[in-house]
Amino acid sequence: MREQLQQDFLTHYGKEHQHTYFSPGRVNLIGEHIDYNGGLVMPCAVTMGTYLLVAPNNDGVFRFKSVNFKETAEVAVGSSNVKKEQFWFNYPIGVIEHFNKDGKELQGLDMLYFGNIPIASGLSSSASIEVVTAYALNDLFNGGYTKLELVKLAKWVENVFIGLQSGIMDQFSVAFGEKDKALMLNCDTLDYQAVDSNLGDYLLAIINTNKPRKLAESKYNERVQECNAALAALKQELDINYLCDINTETFNKHKHLITDKVVLDRATHVVEENDRVKLAAKALNDNVLAEFGRLMYASHHSLSTLYEVSGKELDTVVNFCKPNADVIGARMTGAGFGGCAIALVKKDAFDKFSAEVTEYYTKEVGYAPSVYSSLIGDGVGLLPELAHA
Ligand code: ADP
Ligand code: MG
């Protein structure tokens, strides 16, 4: 694949590239819908992501080309940029705009992107392209940003330049990810701990339901409101800022204050899920994958029944996984109502798993999922160039 990309660069720009950068996508292993409740998430970088090949030019322009999209673009160095319609190159242009805003000196650059991660499927190809661009420019032109500043810069691109509201988890995990580590992260304080996550004989299967994620945004806002209602009720007796400031034991002593059954269910998910993340970190750290898998199923069950953000498609995947001896745990990941599920699957059974889950899902849902295998990979970086044959 790297050889092919080098060839693509040569064909498109008529010269050799000089450097190759890579930024992964991410999945959240556990800790869903609790980041906005002061809780802990536990994402990891995956081994699929976005490659960026670059070569400087003397023409005073940035040129953008992506193997994944047909549109190309060119903007002058130092020019002020605004978002243009819905084109993909808004992502790198937004990054450049932030460098401009901060008065950083940039020079002309020819760029070629390639994502081998499913795009617009919830694995954060957007954070991946933002972070790979920011990292490359910072590295090539001595931008002087720290990695955390690059994360915040990329989030600015997503939230302000592109205009999509989202937390910092995505940019953080693709930048700070480490091979065979999960990141237990508080999205408010950005305190995090890299948790040893040796998957041993297992890999991370990613099952994209291929369901358009229509409901996610309105339901997301509804859940935020329900959590606020639960918090307000608990505050009558407890001095807390977030639902995740208390554990399940304390919650159980005070939950009588929440009179609405639905609000109580939502809060129960939040508090228990936060406890599950801590147990999951311990299970991974102790290398007890079976316990981690059990927590994945418990997380999914809670998201499906208490938080009600799953749906037939995601439930179908997890229902297929549960009785399967080659699968140790599975759950929906991301906001829900579609998007992806993840499963820990025996490495040597992956092909069989992929064929069987596809068949089962297609029969139940009416169209096929996409199934990928991944490991827990490194965060953004400069790749060593291939040795010339
Ligand atoms: P997700 O982050 O879940 O993959 P988004 O809709 O947030 O989905 O981001 C996808 C968008 O990011 C694409 O439509 C495109 O504009 C941009 N993008 C991601 N990867 C690439 C790539 N390899 N080449 C060009 N644009 C990309
Ligand atoms: Mg995105």
TrEMBL record:
Keywords recorded for this protein, A-Z: ATP-binding, Carbohydrate metabolism, Cytoplasm, Galactose metabolism, Kinase, Magnesium, Metal-binding, Nucleotide-binding, Transferase
Occurrences of domain GHMP kinase N-terminal (ranges): 90-177
Record carries keyword Lyase: no
SUPFAM superfamilies on file: GHMP Kinase, C-terminal domain, Ribosomal protein S5 domain 2-like
E.C. numbers: 2.7.1.6
Residues carrying the site annotation Transition state stabilizer: 26
Active-site residues annotated for this sequence: 170
Gene Ontology molecular function, alphabetical: ATP binding; galactokinase activity; magnesium ion binding
Role, per record: Catalyzes the transfer of the gamma-phosphate of ATP to D-galactose to form alpha-D-galactose-1-phosphate (Gal-1-P).
Name this protein carries in UniProt: Galactokinase
Native source organism of the sequence: Mucilaginibacter pedocola
Organism classification: Bacteria, Pseudomonadati, Bacteroidota, Sphingobacteriia, Sphingobacteriales
